[in-house]
Amino acid sequence: MMRRTSRRQFLRYALAAAPLGLAACAQATPVGAPASKPGGQASAPSPASGAPAAKPSAGPPIKIGFISGFTGLYAAEVAAQFAGAQYAVEQVNSRGGVLGRQVVLVQRDDALRPDEATRRTQELVENEKVDFVVGSLSAATQLAINTVTSKAGVIFVSLSQSDKITAMPDFSKYTFHESLTPRQTSTVVARWALQNLGKRPYLLVADYAFGHEHLDGWRRQIQAAGGQEAGVDLHPLGAPDFSAFFPKILAARPDFLVLANFGKDTLKSAQQAVAFGLKQQMPIVISITSTETIQEGGPEVFGDCYMGGSWFWTLADRIPSAKQFVDGFRAKNGRPPSDYGGYAYSGVLELLEAVERAGTTDADRVIAQLEGHQYDHYKGPQYWRRCDHQSIQDVYVYRIKTRFEDQWNILDIIHQEGGEGIAATCAEQGHAA
Amino acid sequence: MDATLVALVTQLFTGLAVGSLYVLLAVGLALIFGVLGITNFAHGAFFALGAYVGLTVLGRTGNFWLALALAPLVVGLLGLAVERGLMQRIAARADVMSLLLTYGLAIMLVEIIKLVWGKTGYPPTVPAGLQLPVNLGFAYFPAYRLFVIGLALVVTVAVILLLERTDWGLIIRAATQDREMVSLLGVENGRFLGLTFALGVALAGLAGVAAGPIVGIFPDMGTDILIESFVVVVVGGLGSLRGAIAGGLLIGLVISFTTLVWPAVSQLSIFILMALVLLFRPQGLLGRAA
Amino acid sequence: MRWLQRLARRPMLVLAVAFVLLPLVVPYYALASHMLVFGLFASAFDLLLGHTGLLSFGHAAFFGVGAYTAALAAKLFDLPLLVCLLLGTAAAGLWGLVVGALALRQRGVAFAMLTLAFGQMIFFVVLQARGLTGGDDGLRGIPIRGLGVPGFEWRLDNSLHVYVFVAAAVWLALWALQRVLASPFGHVLEAIRENEVRARACGYDTVRVQLVAFVFSALFSGFAGALYTFTLYFVALETLHWTLSGYVALMAILGGSGTVFGPLVGAGVFILLRDIVSTFRDDWQLFVGAAFVLCVLLFPRGICGTLQDVLARRRAPAAELPAPAVAPTLARQPREG
């Protein structure tokens, strides 16, 4: 995949490699210069190149650093996520940019590693001098990025799920969370499931922050609904095999099984639940996972399972902004956008519109434009809650189709709930109000 | 049967099925380590490659059994090419450089897989005829997993026969003891080194095809299982095939039963087991004492 | 060539100059700091692999223990920078003593796998103690530190300041490491690496000597980890993962295990290569993998090791060519004889 980059930047990188070994090795022979490989990429077209030059540019481009796990376990999700951001930038640039300035995305790979994310964000902020940072697809990398941006006073719009990022002490006034929190998602999914599937769920939870946050949300609702846990099991992240849990789960005779894990873990656990005949005996509710995971597993694995989520492209049938987004994105990319693509699109667009309203890229004035602001870029109305900069929005519950009509049409939307009531309160988050 | 006993027996089968995959991987690793002295960090990548080649064969022919036969062949041939083309250049110093070489190969292979087959994985598809759970009389158990247990059994018996009943096997066993002596005896070193490496990675490829219907097929599927396979080899006893078999099944059972009791430590448990084995029986369960 | 030889006799001076020049050629300061920290880590690791002949596969634990301890000292007790670094280093050394005492009962692969097992245990403990360590979310909220020297408040709040401090600290640590290797103790280590049985016959308690080397290696690794904390102000759980143990071994081997600055060069090349290629391409790992394979073919003794061989060959007539040092072998077992 090609990257946008300036020739000067490339030269600088190319120059860097060769003399290093020389200097430190104290040897005369230069070390094989590894930077010569990607030479062809220097002239790669920038994402903005398709845009007609409507107005003469009123200044240097506005730079948005986009950092996410382009390699690693969620490469497919991130590719779809980035496509959403690219589409937003392209739209803005074709309208003449923001404040008469073009917008560019500076893409960086954190490989899903938080330390990599930290260093790369330092580079984006200090060297690339980006005006804003957007991205991430893991709780840990977003928290890592946030430590850098909040110190540097750069606005960061996070596109990944975490309860902590909007809560004290991680929250800073530069932090904005476009994505759902696990608390929001699990509240809606749990309420719906406890009402419709029974009061005794068994929870299979990935033993990391994301899983624990979902478990916490489920437990609140189980208590509120007067339900009861049939059992809870924590499984290690990336567990190769889940079959060992199933005899236990079957013996507990729950009303339904909850999977509070993500990606490959969801896929493996659901698939093995099918193989062990579990799915034939109880409904399975996936607290949330990526639609890419559902595509990968197919209807044989996931058909008739329930799942929570932030958005699905068939919402275009009932929400005008969704239709606009889906049609435009489809015309460009030949596929409908994903839920993470939606987050990225909405996050970037909202940020740029705030810049337009503020008349400047100055962080404080952009923040003033964002706080409390209502917007509707792709999923109907949502807004930034003042206290914690969480985007208050709807959560959906889907039933996964038993036959996929095509690769993309895989979910039926069966329930929708939103508002502040599903999120942690400002006080719970450790904010004044 | 009461519920606890059923759970225990089911868990036993589960552990055996997981262990069977480890056995297939570990036998190949042990073979390569024993004969070539190389710690093959690319073993997990060959495992993944096997799964993907199997996927393609399955897609073209619709025949899982053909995939099971062809994928190891393709992976083995690639292994032969790698050994002849790259490894033998550093064979004289089969030292730490081989770590760098096989590691480099591993990340290249995974990246090539992504280029050819895409970044998104493919779902686990259980071959026709093995899809339904089998009633074992006391509980249901997936038929495919029973098949994997059987497959591992047949393959390891075949490998043991190969090693113990053929001339080639004799050379390999001799080389495991003392490689220099074998070459001094006039055995052409190169060919059997290459073939041994090919056999080792072919077994990894076979394990990949067999694992696909259980864990799904994705580019990084070999990363974690690689380190677990090392553990299996060490627990069983370096260079010992029977050790690799025993180690694989034991590790499978340990994971399976700790999952029952304390799931969070299931992944750690194998390392604790390994530490205990190494501290009290450093040659491994079935390894020869140094 | 004579100027080169003269320079080679003053390696620490060369290093100091290189550290001054590094940020001028590396794309950004944070990357330069990263290279030096891992250069120190790889050098500490190579104290075992290259100079003692022991391959550890659990060194991430020492790096991570250093990083977490330093971070917690700053976060919970608000201790000054130097104390944090000291505590991180000491904690890693202590853990090194425990692991070394147990693992050194074995050699070769068994030793490597024992260090791996202990590394996994630390990983597990830190993951489970999420209230204290942040678990997989990583440890955050580490307060910004300065040198704390009255009249010279060098605050580590921007990458340039961090680099200057890291460069000085790494230089000092490498100097200390050189002193260790050049000491009589270092010579005993080399003797053990070459032939453990013979060294034992000479009356050395080889296991104790190796244990001391192991603890030294852990101390320096922990110091590198503690420094890492103050370059990022974030400690990722990944710093304890076995993949990092693998990376550090690769860095040392890539640069030339057993050479003076090989591990430093290896770490630098490794990190720089990754960073640069991944800036331009999503399939950067393909190039990194290919670079490793090429390196093995082009530099069979690692970058610095092979370059030294080439220079030595050019300098010395073929007759008095020094026998190349025996590269450490993974499968090394104590041999009788």
Describe it:
The complex is a heterotrimer of chains A (433), B (290) and C (337). Chain A is α/β, with parallel strands linked by helices. Chain A is built from 12 helices and 15 strands. The longest helix of chain A is centred in the N-terminal third of the chain and has 20 residues, at 75-94. Chain B is mainly α and 290 residues long. Chain B has a two-stranded antiparallel sheet with strand order 1-2. The radius of gyration of chain B is 19 Å and the shape is globular. The model of chain B has no long low-confidence stretch (mean pLDDT 84). Chain C has 337 residues and is mainly alpha-helical. Helix content of chain C is 72%, strand content 0%. Chain C has helices at residues 2-8, 11-25, 29-52, 60-77, 81-103, 108-128, 130-133, 159-182, 184-194, 196-201, 206-232, 242-255, 262-280, 284-298, 303-315. At the A-C interface, helix 1, helix 3 and helix 4 of A face helix 1, helix 2, helix 3, helix 13 and helix 14 of C.
Top keywords for this entry?
heterotrimer, A: alpha/beta, 7-stranded mixed β-sheet, 12 helices, 15 strands, 16% strand, globular, B: 290 residues, mainly alpha, ABC transporter involved in vitamin B12 uptake, BtuC, 2 strands
